[in-house]
Amino acid sequence: MLRQSALLVLAVLSSSLSACAHRVEPQISQAVLDARAGRDVAGDACGSQPAKPAPISVQFPFGETELSPAGQRAADGALAWLICHPNGRAVIRGAADGHGSAAAQTALANSRAQAVQTYLIGKGVEARLTLAAPDAPDPQREVLLIAAEGRRW
After folding, report:
1. Residues near 61 by Cβ (< 8 Å), separated by ≥ 6?
2. pLDDT tens, residue by residue, 94-112
3. Angle at CA 117, nearest 5°, toward 121 and 127?
4. TM spans, by residue (predicted)?
């Protein structure tokens, strides 16, 4: 009886281990297939980018000049448009919160615009960025307008 039980346990274990020996081939991702085929994946992603740029608002917390994670995501939207439009240009216009002296508001607006510019330069689009004064008129050419704005109360 003990011998039969041992044989039964051995048979069950060997059959369960043989199931582990079945090799599953990994699936190749679409990104790898595209890379092997030499496809322009970035070009495919640009299909969703509009030809005419829509203004982008990069929000800053009240009185702040440092890009938050949400501000970086908004700036990444501008970056995506600039990458998809290699001849495109962007005008960055800073804005303040509307509190304090005129000089303080101008300094805050300029610092915010420079923060967005610095972020985008770090991503490789420096030659196509222009800073505009907070009260400058909208650009007449087709450029991406990035507003570095603060949240108002």
Report:
1. 68, 150, 151
2. 988 888 898 999 999 999 9
3. 50
4. none
| Distance of alpha carbon 41 from alpha carbon 118, whole angstroms | 27
Cα distance between residue 78 and residue 115, in whole Å:
14
Q: According to DSSP H, which parts of the chain are helical?
A: 2-20, 30-37, 41-45, 69-84, 102-122
Q: What are phi and psi of 96, to 5 degrees?
A: -110, -175
In total, the chain counts a number of residues equal to 153
Fold of 41-150: 60s Ribosomal Protein L30; Chain: A; (3.30.1330)
Residues 108, 16 contacting (CB under 8 angstroms)? no
Give the sheet arrangement for strand 144-150, strand by strand. 56-60, 144-150, 90-94, 129-132
Name the residue with tokens 């599953």. 24
Q: pTM value?
A: 0.65
**Residue for token pair 């990994």:** 26
- Crossing angle of helices 69-84/102-122, nearest 10°? 60
